Every structure is written in structure tokens, then in C-alpha cells.
Amino acid sequence: MRKATILLFILSALQGYSQSKPDTVKKEKALNIFLDCGYCDMDFLRCDIPIVNYVRDRKEANVDIVASAEQTGSGGEEFTFVFIGQGKYKGQTDTLRTNTTMLVTEEDQRKAIAQTLKMGLIRYIAQTPYSSKLNISFTKDSTLGMNCPAPPADKWKSWVCTVNLGGNLNQQELTQQVMFTPSINISKVTPEWKMGINANSLYMNNTYNISGQTVDAIMRTESFNGFFVKSMGEHFSSGMVGGINTSTVSNFKLQEKIGPAIEYSIFPYSECTHRQLRLLYSVYGIDNSYVDTTILGKIHERLGAEALTLYSQYKQNWGSLTAQITASHYFYDLRRYEVNMNVNANVNLFEGFSLGFFVSLSLIHDQIYLPAIGPTDNDILLGLQALATTYNFSSGLQITYTFGSIYNNIVNPRFNLQFPYN
User: Fold this and answer.
1) How far apart are CA 64 and CA 62, in angstroms?
2) Is there a domain that residue 215 lies in?
3) pLDDT tens by residue, the chain, 422 residues
4) Residue 15: inside a domain, yes or no?
5) Residue 200 C-alpha from the chain's centroid
6) Is 103 left (phi over 0), alpha (psi -120 to 50) or beta?
7) Is the dihedral of CA 68, 71, 73, 77 positive or negative?
8) Residue 44 gets which letter from DSSP?
9) Element (DSSP H or E) covering residue 339
10) Burial class of residue 82 (count of CB atoms within 10 Å of its CB; 0-12, 13-18, 19+)
């Protein structure tokens, strides 16, 4: 009886689909667009820009739209949309941007995104039978005359402060976790200068009742990091970086770092929203005070070190790629080095198929901070102390295949909720 009910439900659904009108799924001769935008509200856009076909595969699109976002100095975001014409629109490419502030509402943000998309699509829609549906107008504004007013004075002088106070309590019959995670971020960003201070703290106390005995596991880390950067054109930047850190996990009672840094960008900084290739070199002095005597017999030491980072980020219609490789070592012993590599990629192989993967690899030969006494069993099981290792590796892979109708124009919000049934 149950199988018959399920079968009847499926047949009814298929019958209803077969009787639907074609134009509810596909708009004939309308522009086909593929919008690669993870932060866009697609239901809102389908309702607000209804005279195009939203297709699920970029190879079926007349216009492939690649979206990206970068945080601005004011704490807001700059959204970039690259419109790439395909087929008869090949060679027609545009890049449009819109900015939002940190105080903007979600509603205002999605309206700004929709407005930018409308402006970018005009030239393409104008070549379709739907061009008659366009209605272009301008908002009246007296400041559009010759005498434009000066921008309003900024009493904060481009400084932005963000304070977060967070914590949680999780308690069961035999366990309890108390955690606090306060942080503060202060920054100032102008075309010529960029500076910022970040302070973060983590306090976590886990209590376990094991065989009638109470075990407390306490983890504490605090960090205070700052940077000061001067722009030197579209390809060079220089500045200072530094920080103060403490960590029960890494045996640091107090660690202080400071030194100069220089960066070279292969591509102009103005293209950073869709492609970046940068080299960052820094040299710095370090002052370490340890909680316990280290494996090298040190309770305090001063060191010099250098680091070189290669950072790459691309977002094109073929997919996206982010990769970073950092190599560092202490001057007193070149055998004390560390190399970190992180790669995240999503590649569109062919129609319907995409491949996503990440790889993270660290070669670790600079754990001079490890305490000589070594970790206890509780430290190992509860992750309270860093463990000796020469490498750390993690990876993941995802293959996605999508098939069926290429059109996705319908908005139906029914049952858009979390089901409690499993």
C-alpha cells in the first residue's frame, strides 16, 4: 500500500509537469544568462529581472556573468560583475562594480546587485525581441549640474572599528564547555595607505566527569597583530608588520614579532576582484618567552627570520582557483624551516560536470617551541598541546554532475525550511 501511494504521488507530479505551459519554463528568444554568484539572492533576481532565461550551465548561456566580492576599507563590500558574451555576443565583454557600506541592509544590498546586473544586461537584451520591455529612466538630481558639491566631511577620517563579544555554554550530564571569543578590528584604508590592528582572544574550559573524577581542560590564546602599508603604484606596496601572541597550545608565554615587508603584484591591484598574483617578502625579529623549557633547553630567546609568500586567485568563466605557498625559516639555522601550501579550485570540465578540490600541505621543521617535558595523555586526547610532527596534510575532492532542463526561471518558495524528519 505504501509503495502504491509513493508511485501515485510520483505519477501525479510528472503528469502535472507535462501539462505545464512551455513558456513558464523557457522564455522563447529571450537572453540566456548564467550567473556565477554564490552570494546573490537568485529568487529575488528571477522576480526582479524576469525577461531573461536563467540557465544552469554556462555553456548554454548567451552571457556568462562571473561575480566576485572584496571587502572595502569602510567594512562594506565591492561587488564586481564580469559580463562575457558567448555565441553571437562573443567579444562583447563588460565589467561593472557596485559598493555597499557596512551599515547597508540585506534588502538594499540585493537591490544594488540587481541594479548593477540590469545595467550590464541592457546591451545584450537590446538585441533580443524583449528590447521593447526595457524602460530606461534617470533619477532627477540637482547635483548633476556643473556645480557638484564637495563630498561630505568624514569625522572618522576613514577609520573603521569592529568589536565582537562572543561566547557559549554547552552542558550535558557528564561534560561542560565554557568558551569566550572576544575580538576587535581597527582599520583605515585609503588609496595611498592601509593600516589595521586585529586583537583576538580564545578562552575555553572543558570539564569532563570520567569514572567519578573531574578533569578540567583549559585552552587560552591571545593575539594582537598590526600592519602598516604604503601604496607604491599599481604593482608595488611596502610596509611594516608585527604582532604579540600568547598560547597555551604552542607553549608561548609571550611572543613578539616585528619587521618590514614588501609586495609585488604581477597584475594591477585594480584587477584584484577577479585575478591576483602577488609576491610578499618579509624579514622580522622575534622575541619568544616560553611557559615551559623547550626541547632545545630555552625559556627565552631572540631570533631573526624571513618569509616569502606567493598568492594567486583567479575567478573566470572556467572556474575559480585560489593558491598560496609560504616558505619561512630562522636565520640561525636554515634547517629550521616551514613550507605551507594551500590550493582550492573549482573547474568546469564540460557541460554539467564540475570538479572541486582542495589540498593543504605543510612541511614542518621549526617546532622549537615544543616543551621538553612532552604532552600528557590528556593533552593529546583533548588537543591541549601542539604535537611534534614533520608534516600536516589534508585534501578533499568533489565531482558534481547536473542534468535535466537547462532553464531555471521559476520562483517557488514553498517548503523552503529545515525538515525535522530523518
Assistant:
1) 7
2) no
3) 555 455 445 445 444 544 444 444 577 888 999 988 888 888 788 888 888 888 888 888 899 998 888 887 767 788 889 999 998 999 898 889 888 877 777 788 888 899 999 999 988 988 888 888 887 777 666 555 545 455 566 677 778 888 999 999 999 888 899 999 999 999 888 888 889 999 999 999 988 887 778 888 889 999 999 999 999 988 999 999 999 999 999 999 999 999 999 999 999 887 777 788 999 999 999 999 999 999 999 999 999 999 999 999 887 778 888 999 999 999 999 999 999 999 999 888 877 788 999 999 999 999 998 998 888 777 777 777 888 899 999 999 999 887 776 666 655 566 656 555 54
4) no
5) 19
6) alpha
7) positive
8) H
9) strand 333-350
10) buried
H or E element, residue 13 = helix 2-18
Domain that holds residue 125: 23-132
CB 32 within 8 A of CB 52: yes
The per-residue DSSP string of 194-215 comes to EEEEEEEEEEEEEEEEETTEEE
Residues 196/226, Cβ–Cβ less than 8 Å? yes
Question: Per the domain annotation, does 282 fall within a domain?
Answer: yes
Domain co-membership, 106 together with 238: no
Classify residue 189: in a domain, yes or no: no
Three-class DSSP category at 218 = strand
Sheet holding 77-85, edge to edge: 52-54, 31-36, 63-71, 77-85, 93-100
Q: How far apart are CA 184 and CA 164, in angstroms?
A: 6
Residue 212 sits at φ, ψ, to 5 deg, of 85, -5
Same domain, 395 and 269: yes
Long-range contacts of 200-209 (CB under 8 A, 24+ apart): 203/179, 204/177, 204/178, 204/179, 204/180, 205/177, 205/178, 205/179, 206/175, 206/176, 206/177, 206/382, 207/175, 207/176, 207/177, 208/174, 208/175, 209/174, 209/175
- pTM, to two decimals: 0.68
- Nearest residue to 33 via CA among 135, 109, 128: 128
- Domain closes at, from 77, 101, 132: 132
What total of structural domains would you count in the chain? Answer: 2
246 and 104 both lie in a single domain? no
Q: Which of 132, 166, 194 is the last residue of a domain?
A: 132
Shared domain check, 243 and 127: no
Three-state SS sequence of 256-285: EEEEEEEEEECCCHHHCCCEEEEEEEEEEE
Which letter, b or e, does each residue of 353-366 get, where b requires 16 or more Cβ atoms within 10 Å of its Cβ?
ebeeeeeeebeebe
Q: How many CB atoms lie within 10 A of CB 281?
A: 13
CA distance 165 to 179: 11
